[in-house]
Amino acid sequence: MFGRRIGYNERKRKRKRARMRRMRVAGVVRWYKRKGWILTLLLIVATVALWQSRFYLHQINPLELRHLQYIEIEGNRMLSWEDVVQSAQVETGMLMSELDADSVKKSLLQIPLIHSAEVESKFPSSLYIKLQEASPIVSVLEGGKGTVYSERGLSLPMSMMTALHLPILENESVGKVKLVAQFLFAMRKEDKPLYDRVSQVGWSEKDKAFEVFFKDAGFRVMFPESNWDKDLFMLYDAIGKGFRKDLLCASEVDMRFHGFAYIKNFDKRCING
User: Fold this and answer.
1) Which residue in 207, 243, 237, 235 sits closest to 222, CA to CA?
2) pLDDT tens digits, residue range 133-143?
3) Beta bridge partners of 192
4) How big, in percent rounded to 5, are the helix, strand and coil portions of the chain?
5) Which of 128, 129, 177, 218 is deepest in the core (most CB within 10 A)?
6) How far apart are the C-alpha atoms of 213 and 238, rounded to whole Å?
7) Across residues 174-186, what is the average pLDDT?
């Protein structure tokens, strides 16, 4: 009595919608009876086949489907493309699954002429190598021969003329050549003009410090065995500019103390710094 009345047209539309739904469902059922069962059967067969071969699917490595085609090398000047590829132990045509970037990098760092290397495998089939070649940093003179060492403390095939133009490492400190090379590399990186003035360098086991002699100074300078930053070398330059009179009679400048230096004099007439 109080419900909503449904008109004739609306009842007609509802019957039509219901009839259309039945027709669509009936059409799907007829299609499935004619062709749909084939698709279902194929799907079941494929599922069973994949399940049965799941072990072999896990063994598939997509990298084994690709081979190395391109090798790009950047930064090589002294070394040829062939030298780098041979040292890296790679070749075009090898499986990408056999290519390990870390192993290639380790192989390259065995070459004294290489300071650092970046190796990257790029999709789909190329290898990128970026090199920073080593440079001479210090030399050792012994028996009329000169041996040049790189920043990593490895000997380089350089001439005697090159050795004479580098800071000379004391023969007694040859056992510390790698540590000395790291120290001089830090100095050259932070203060190239200061490095260019180095004449001789050594290692003092007693003081646990580097003994450095500069071409423009008559005293030795002791630098700490670690923490070689820009401030350390700037402090030495500042001492040279601000305390010239004190340095005229100095025998030693000790830079091992952070933020200041101690000047030791030749004779008692000079006042200690």
Assistant:
1) 207
2) 999 999 999 98
3) none
4) 45, 25, 30
5) 129
6) 17
7) 96
Q: Tokens for 158?
A: 């350089």
Nearest-5° Cα angle at 184, 161 to 244 = 100
- CB-based contact 135:117 (threshold 8 Å): no
- Smallest CA-to-CA distance from 270 within 253, 251, 254 is with 251
Length of the chain measured in residues: 273
Q: What element of type H or E holds 136?
A: strand 136-142
Q: Is-contact 105 94, C-beta < 8 A?
A: no
3-state secondary structure of 7: coil
Q: Collapsing DSSP states into helix, strand and coil, what is residue 154?
A: coil
The pTM of this model reads 0.71
* Locus of tokens 């059409």: 27
Number of helical H runs and strand E runs in the chain? 10, 12
Cα 104 from Cα 88, distance rounded (Å)? 5
